[in-house]
Amino acid sequence: MMMLGYAGWGAGQLENEIANNGWLNCPASEELIFDRDLGDKYDRALALMGVAPAMLSVDAGHA
Question: How many other CB atoms are there within 10 angstroms of residue 48's CB atom?
């Protein structure tokens, strides 16, 4: 898999997005990062966080 792109943020924008739960991240895993099987990679990343895909929502916030 090869990806090429660009992302840019204004001063403090990324920190604000993270504080507002705009990003979902998981612990780094070499097995996950370098595994060429893309079919269930997203589900495996969610599993590392203990998240069931059915429990995700399009709405963000703080519990």
Answer: 13
Whole-number Cα distances in Å, 53 to 40, 41, 45: 12, 12, 10
**DSSP, res 36:** -
Provide the whole-model pTM: 0.58
Q: Which of 35, 37, 7 is nearest to 23 (CA)?
A: 7
* φ/ψ (deg, to 5) at 49: -95, -5
3 state SS of 52? coil
* Structure-token match 């204004």, residue found: 10
Which tens digit of pLDDT belongs to each residue from 15-40? 998 888 888 778 888 998 898 888 89
* Residue 8 or residue 3, greater confidence: 8
E strand map for 1-63: none
